[in-house]
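Replying to the earlier thread about multi-chain prediction with a worked example.

Input:
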Amino acid sequence: MKRSLMARLWPNATALVLFVVFTFPVYWMFATALKPTGDIIADTPVFVPTDITFDHFQKALEADHFWTLVGNSLTVTVLAVVFSLVIGLLASFALARMRFKGRRGFLLTFMIAQMAPWEVMVIAIYMIVRDADLLNSLIPLTAFYMIMVLPFTILTLRGYVAAVPKELEESAMVDGCTRRQAFVKVIFPLLAPGLMATSLFGFITAWNEFPLVLILNKDAEKQTLPLWLSSFETTFGDDWGATMAAASLFAIPILVLFVYLQRKAVSGLTSGAVKG
Amino acid sequence: MSVQTDRTDTGTAAAPGVRKTDVPPPDDTGIRKGKGKGERPAGGRGGASAPYVLLLPALLATVILLGWPLIKNGMLSFQNLNPRQLILHLTEWRGFDNYTDVLSSEDFWKVVQRTVVFTAVNVVLTMVLGTLVGLLLARLGKRMRLVLLLGVVLAWAMPVIAATTVYQWLFAQRFGVVNWLLAKAGWTSMADYNWFGTQLSTFSVITLLIVWQSIPFVAINLYAATTTIPKELYEAASIDGAGTWKSFTSVTFPFIRPFLWATTFLEVIWIFKAFPQIFAMNKGGPDRLTETLPIYAFVEGPGNQHYGMGAAISFLTILILLALTAYYLRTVLKQEEDEL
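Result:
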């Protein structure tokens, strides 16, 4: 009896400890952002903020170019994800549904493309973009973020398309739909969770991207939020309240999106990846 | 993603290999009745060129946006390209000199060694701890599992730069909560410890950050894998008198082995390439001692404006990454051949 109680207690206790370990940094970010400066630089850390202030958030929001950069980040990220979904869906449909010569070659190309070490290719990209006279522009960022998420999109969506029974499409075609209509009316709605999962991960990748924008867009008004955040700290020095508020502002969209879509996205990712 | 994950750039993440095992899709469509009988061949309409037309945009994008930088990178690596040449748009070839310079520099080999050790440590920690968390998730009751999943997902979803900034604050010399905790725990000399003052301590913070953000992907993937194991196998094992350990080694492990393989491979790639975590944490410092290959290529290239040298370093970096993952890639390619 005692042993079975222990056997049940053990995993639960570990899980609780792990929960604290995993969430603490996230909690600490928000907690710090909401504390008055006096509480932040207290000799004994204030673990539960009682005296809540929004001054730090205000400071971060009023920082140079904040809203411009929000706009930049959103534009670049959303466009990159949408383009990669459209292009990726076409490709994944071909790869999942059709037999043709060179199919394996295409598949391998995308698999290898997925490994591309973008982080070390910044010099070449810089030269290309400079020669095209597109430094400090959002166009190259959009294009490269799109290609960063495209292979993932194709491979994952391929799994989802393959999971939709062929018969559905065929029966729609028997009912008089063209192949395209069958796709739009029957298959597309069934792909919603897959599209959601892939776009979530594409969104995160593009939202996070750092080295490329670091070298391509030196112009303060043409940067994106990751750069803003990393330079924020330099500008504000030891103002941890403002820095944590800035970090929160940057993290909130993703955290909300992720937790909101979590169920679908996580199961989507795993099964999508598993199905490949 | 990522995957990241990002992920998780975190997040970026599908697995060219986390496959094989047949998991049903999450959204069970249920409907499976073909209405009529007169089926057309699936590839029918649209003719033989249809698949190529559908693939064309993706292929064009890949060739232009990935192939071109790769080729450009190769060409730059044979050029003498410094601020002067850059501004005047001069192309000066210098043969293999960039490569001989890089390969004969002691610094480069130190960075290579450091990068490999760094990758190994982080991957091993991530895989071991991630697997344990994944197995724990499988054992928990429903409610507790949700709690732990929420925690793990939060860590996963944190954007990398935000997470890096938070870790700087956690480990800040003054008023950092970690130093306070260590001092409270009796290690009083840590009260004012500067974590970013030495190579080892900086790497420790970076490692903690990376492992913390990488565990979720491994854990969730692994947990998902365990849910596909038929219960009967465990029953059979227990009838045969297998204990916990025995049923793990004879049932669970063989099942999750492909996932472990695939995730290890992905983690090797992601951690080897890790850029923002290291760069934003302390710019590769102190004294350039935490520069790994991607940072080194960046600092030598755009940083010190030796673009040709930087390109040579990045080409070598790609080669090293390929060498590290060659074994796994080969097995995947082989599997793929069997499958198609």
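Chain B has 13 helices and no strands.

Feel free to reuse this layout for your own posts.
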